[in-house]
Amino acid sequence: MAVDTSDSPADFLSFPASRLAELIKAREISVKEVVASSLERAAIVQAEFNSFTRIFNDESIEAAERADKAIASGAELGPLFGVPISIKDFTPTEGQLTTRGSCTLETNVGAADPVIVKRLKAAGAIVVAKTTTPEFAYSSFTQSPLWGITRNPWNRDHTPGGSSGGAAVSVVTGSVGIAEGTDMGGSVRIPSAFSGCVGMKPSKGRIPMEITGSVFDHISHFGPLARSVHDAALFLRVTEGPDEADMQSQLQPLPIPETLMTNAKGLRIAISPDLGFYNVDPTVLSNLKRSADALVEAGAQVDWVDLDWPANFATEWVEYWEVFLAAQFGHLLETSRDIMDPELVHVLDAGMKAKAIDIERGALTRTLQWRKMAQLFEKYDALVCPTTAQVAPLAKQKDSDFESLGDDGRLNGLDMTAIFNNVGVCPAIAVPNWTADNALPTSVQVIGRRFDDPTVLRIASCLEHFSPWPLWKPAG
After folding, report:
1. Residue-range definition of the domain harbouring residue 441
2. Is 86 within 8 Å of 182 (Cβ atoms)?
3. Closest C-alpha to 125, from 170, 72, 180
4. In 3-state terms, what secondary structure has residue 146?
5. How far is Cα 476 from Cα 462, in angstroms, rounded to an integer?
6. What angle do CA 453, 196, 4 make, to 5 degrees?
7. DSSP 278-330
8. What is the pLDDT of residue 10?
9. Res 476: pLDDT
10. Is the N-terminal amide bond of 163 cis, ω within 30° of 0?
11. Residues 6 or more apart from 271 whose CB is under 8 A from it?
């Protein structure tokens, strides 16, 4: 079921990060005990699912010992004090290997911590590991030429999703209390959906994002992967706020309450099963109905809507994504094509061929999407839809397996997330909503009005409360 915070301290690896922090502050458990258990679990999980690029054993224990001394001295403790966390291998960390899943960066060491990592550390979190990502975070599958294939903890034959796949596995398995991820087209929400945890793309600029090389980047976000909605909210409160490193960072983000409501009275919620053009797995649709019932129970007005959206809202993101990646990494093709992921090479080649006029026409398509969403939000507080159209595919499949149109003209797509990176000002959160017959998780996605992160968190909290989901349990 959804995380039960009443369990005994002996079960603390399944606790939300916020509960771990409470136990540490109350001195019911030491930081060293938490971190040592985290490292032990991470080693087991790594051997089984390949979710980490580095586990920082010695450094983490040393940090834990310093933390316990700080507690003993009566020092002021941050909201994540002593909690083990993971950082995605796409995100640089000072003095640590950061390869972005690519052989071209096999020996690359981060020169400095970005703003988000500095803020997590300032809140007391202890970075115990870096998590796997596909090469340059390009894929919905976590497999890279450098680190190999990462596998789903519910079924090793399947993918945990991408590109924050290792992050999702680290949270679901209890290896860490909370994980950092990046989301340019669903890279937090897709793995959270396939692996069975909460994953959020905050509104653009709530958390400063300065690691992609362009301050004009409108699709990229940092976001949490967590075992509870409360933890996702805590992650945002710790990391949000303006910084000159990101000119798009919000000066005054809407405040997120310390306690999230578990009633939706007064809220109007639109539910779309397919966004108008996706072929969606029947089990995903069935579990979406489960979520709709939960929102009704929470007191919301729920309307099933037929969105008049064309498929090119989704394909526009793909075309922009090709250009986005080619602008940053296309130069590597000349010297490193043979050691790069062939699927990524295909994406970069396509991006290199794009015409400037086509890129600007894409902005017109995104504008049309925004106007349709603005009309929807005149009546509704949020839109709810599946996070992914399918349950987790096999680990060895690839994105191009899910790009065809069916005989009915509908898209046989995998994710239903990238379309909302076209309108990055709108927050989106993915919440597990049960499992398929093969025990793989399914997930529902809540998309809110521009910059209204508090409302999507409130709705997610209602889903968590009224429609809890199974937790992953270690084998044996």
Report:
1. 9-305+365-466
2. no
3. 180
4. coil
5. 33
6. 80
7. B---HHHHHHHHHHHHHHHHTT-EEEE------THHHHHHHHHHHHHHHHHHG
8. 53
9. 57
10. yes
11. 288, 292, 302, 303, 304, 305, 383, 384, 385
Separation between Cα atoms, residue 387 and residue 414, nearest integer Å: 9
pLDDT at 471 > cutoff 90: no
Confidence of residue 347 (pLDDT cuts 50, 70, 90): very high
Q: Which residues are catalytic?
A: 88, 163, 187
Compute the chain's Rg from CA coordinates: 21
Assess whether 346 and 369 both reside in one domain: no
Q: Give the span between the Cα atoms of 204 and 222, in whole angstroms.
A: 9
Mean pLDDT of 356-372: 96
Q: Are 162 and 134 in contact (CB under 8 A)?
A: yes
The structure's pTM equals: 0.96
Q: How far apart are CA 186 and CA 441, in angstroms?
A: 16
Average pLDDT, the chain: 95
- Cβ(137)–Cβ(163) below 8 Å: yes
Please count the structural domains in the chain.
2
> Does any domain span residue 409?
yes
Give the closest residue to 176 by CA, choosing from 132, 226, 221: 226
Check whether residue 330 and residue 450 sit in a common domain: no
Say which CATH number the domain at 397 has: 3.90.1300.10
Final residue in a domain of this structure, among 323, 342, 361: 361
Backbone angles phi, psi at 259, to 5 degrees: -115, 125
Helix (H, G, I), strand (E, B) or coil at 336: helix
Rounded to a whole number of angstroms, the distance between the first and last alpha carbons of the chain is 19
CA-CA distance, 179 to 198, in Å (whole number)? 10
Rounded CA separation 188/185 (Å):
8
454 three-state secondary structure: helix
Residues 300 and 357 reside in one and the same domain: no
Shared domain for 356 and 231, answered yes or no, is no
The token pair that represents 306 in the structure block: 């037929």
In terms of C-beta distances under 8 Å and separation of at least 24 residues, what long-range contacts does 313-317 make, across chains too?
A: 313/275, 313/365, 313/368, 313/369, 313/419, 313/422, 314/275, 314/277, 314/411, 314/413, 314/418, 314/419, 316/362, 316/365, 316/366, 316/369, 316/422, 317/185, 317/219, 317/418, 317/419, 317/421, 317/422
Please tell me whether residues 345 and 445 are part of one structural domain: no
- Tokens 């002593």: give the residue: 82
Q: Say yes or no: 186 and 170 in one domain.
A: yes
Tell me if 318 sits within 8 A of 326, measured CB to CB.
no
What would the two tokens of residue 1 be? 């079921």
Taking the C-alpha atoms of residue 165 and residue 183, their distance in angstroms, rounded to an integer, is 11
